[in-house]
From TrEMBL:
Pfam family, any one: DUF1904
Listed InterPro entries: DUF1904 (IPR015017), Tautomerase/MIF_sf (IPR014347)
Protein name, entry field: DUF1904 domain-containing protein
Organism: Kistimonas scapharcae
C-alpha cells in the first residue's frame, strides 16, 4: 500500500520486465503463538520465473530494505521464492 509503487518500480528494474507483469496481494492473517494472537511479521511470497541466484539475492535485499521503511529494524522479514515453470504457466489459455 504505502510502498507499493516504489516496490513495483524496484522489482521491474531488478527483474527486467514491465511493471504490469507484477501483482501485489495483501492477505490479512492472524498469527498465533502459544495460544495467543501475535503481531507476526512480514512474510513475502514471490512467484516468479527463475532469474538466477544473483538477481534473487538483489530482489530479496531490495524487498527487505523497502519493508524496513514501514517496520522496525528488529522485525523479522521472511521472503520465500517460488519458481514458476514456463511449461506449467498459462495466460488466457496460452503458454506464457
Amino acid at each position: 500500500m504505502m510502498i507499493s509503487t516504489e516496490l513495483v518500480d524496484s522489482l521491474s528494474e531488478l527483474v527486467g520486465c514491465p511493471r504490469d507483469h507484477f501483482t501485489l496481494e495483501h492477505i490479512p492473517s492472524t498469527f498465533i503463538f502459544e495460544g495467543q494472537e501475535d503481531a507476526g511479521y512480514p512474510f513475502v511470497e514471490m512467484h516468479w520465473f527463475n532469474r538466477g541466484p544473483e538477481v534473487q539475492d538483489k530482489v530479496a535485499a531490495s524487498l527487505t530494505q523497502m519493508i524496513r521503511q514501514v517496520t522496525s529494524e528488529t522485525t523479522d522479514i521472511a521472503i520465500i521464492f517460488h519458481q514458476l515453470i514456463e511449461q506449467d504457466y498459462y495466460e488466457n489459455g496460452e503458454h506464457f
